[in-house]
Design a protein that fits this description.
Blueprint: H1 4-15, H2 19-38, H3 44-64, H4 73-92, H5 97-106, H6 109-133, H7 137-146, H8 151-158, H9 163-188
Helix pairs in contact: 1-2, 1-3, 2-3, 2-4, 3-4, 6-9, 7-9, 8-9
Length: about 190
């Protein structure tokens, strides 16, 4: 495993009730579990409950002293959450056995983890591309896509003569960002 020492550090921190380790495990894994549960007839509250249960399972295993993790923490938590969620669905009789079988076949751990890992990598690449984009493009795109400002507001704050000029500049910045992103992506291989 490539981050074996980090994984062991987090597990030791979990066993010692280290708040930072617990928060790191939560931050790095909850979104993945939430996506799986909400995509399979659950709510965000269901995801929180199931994730909390899986953290308790992991905590008790690590605390026992004889637990040996043979995969990444995210793989373990995802697997536990998946089993807990399927158990909850079958106990709650929210679905018929045929529907549960269909859900079970669509919730593939490896596929979801691969997809999640690819999304994380893409977000990191996009973050790097934004950093390399430079000003004023970076600020302009953040104003439009993150702060949700309209073109009139952007034209005023960036000193463009009108909203159409701001829109043209946004387009040029977006094309530049796209080029940087894909150049990085190609050079990664």
């Amino acid at each position: 495993m490539k981050n074996d020492s980090n994984e062991q550090f987090l597990l030791k921190g979990l066993a010692d009730n280290n708040r930072m380790a617990i928060e790191t495990i939560y931050f790095e894994n909850f979104r993945m579990v939430q996506t799986m549960i909400t995509a399979n007839n659950g709510s965000v509250e269901d995801a929180k409950d199931v994730f909390q249960e899986s953290m308790i399972v992991l905590y008790e295993k690590v605390k026992s002293g004889s637990f040996e993790l043979n995969c990444q923490i995210k793989t373990y938590l995802y697997s536990v959450c998946r089993r807990l969620w399927l158990k909850r669905l079958s106990q709650g009789q929210r679905n018929t056995p045929d529907e549960l079988e269909k859900i079970e076949s669509t919730v593939l751990v490896e596929d979801d983890l691969d997809k999640h890992n690819q999304q994380d990598a893409d977000f990191k690449n996009m973050e790097r591309a934004m950093t390399n984009l430079g000003e004023p493009c970076k600020s302009l795109l953040e104003a439009y896509y993150i702060r949700k400002k309209n073109m009139v507001e952007i034209a005023e704050s960036f000193g463009y003569t009108n909203a159409d000029n701001a829109k043209n500049q946004k387009y040029k910045c977006l094309m530049r960002l796209k080029k940087i992103f894909f150049d990085q992506y190609k050079n990664k291989d």
